[in-house]
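Request: When convenient, would you put together a sequence paired with its structure tokens?
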Amino acid sequence: MTERLSAAPSTRVGLALAALLLVSAGCGDSDLEKAQQDAREAKATVKKLELSLARAMQEIADQRAELSVVRETRDELQRQVDQLAQERDSAAALAQQAEQVITHLSSRAEGQVGATAALRRQIDDLKAVVADQQALIEELQKAGAIESLSPGQTQGSGDANEPDDDNGA
């Protein structure tokens, strides 16, 4: 590309110089001076064009370098986006597992609350039965003690052949 761009001004300059030489061959000194002036102006124009071309080429090189940096930055950002998406997906899966565990534990806890309440009711029922039986035992002991006493005997004085419970014999 640069060969075509740099060849174009040289061709123009060559054509301009050839035209000047043809014109100057048939003219006098004033025409020669005019032709030389035109040649100088053409050379100055060529120099300006060469400088503009050099600046444009440098600007293109700078733009390419900047584009390369932008592409690298874009690729790095895309890698980060991909990594963040993967981390998000992992976190979502972990949150779903945690939710399932919480649901399972909650239902299990509700079952245990129900079982605990049933056991407490059963304990209360058993305590009531024990209290009733204890009262019945006390009544039976009192009734049995009264029956075992004969009229006129006090408690603890039983048959002479039977040892007292208090003696330990």
Residues 2-143 form one domain. Residues 29-148 form the longest helix (120 residues). The two ends are 133 Å apart (CA to CA).
